[in-house]
Amino acid sequence: MLTIDEKLAEIRRLYFSTTRETIQADLAKALDLLKSMSSEEERERATVYMEGLAQMRSDWARKSAPRSRKRRARN
């Protein structure tokens, strides 16, 4: 069983080591660790890393999504 400090350290490690290719798995693992924390105070300590991971996922998903709009020719 991991201590709260070990859980927080692992979430922090995931935040700093994640890549575009690993973000989904890293975020899922971080969420599992977050859910295993027993109090709101413990979860608050991980907030900045969790928000950062979510933002990276969002940014990378936006950049890799194909554009669906087609430009119309102006007459």
**Any idea how many domains?**
1
Mind summarizing the main beta sheet?
none
Low-pLDDT stretches: none
* Termini separation: 68 Å
Shape: elongated
What fraction of residues sit in β-strands?
under 5%
Number of strands: 0
Helical content, roughly? Answer: 55-70%
Q: Please state the average pLDDT score.
A: 90
What count of helical segments does DSSP give?
4
Indicate the radius of gyration in whole angstroms.
Answer: 17 Å
Structural class: mainly alpha
Helix/strand order:
HHHH
Walk me through the structure.
The protein is an all-alpha fold. The protein has one domain. Helices cover 68% and strands 0% of the residues. The protein contains four helices and no strands. The longest helix has 18 residues. The chain starts with a helix and ends in an 11-residue tail after the last helix. The mean pLDDT is 90.
Any key phrases for this structure?
elongated; 68% helix; 4 helices; mainly alpha; 75 residues
Could you outline the blueprint of secondary structure elements for this entry?
Layout: H1 4-17, H2 23-35, H3 40-45, H4 47-64
Helix pairs in contact: 1-2, 1-4, 2-4
Sum this structure up briefly.
This protein is mainly alpha-helical.
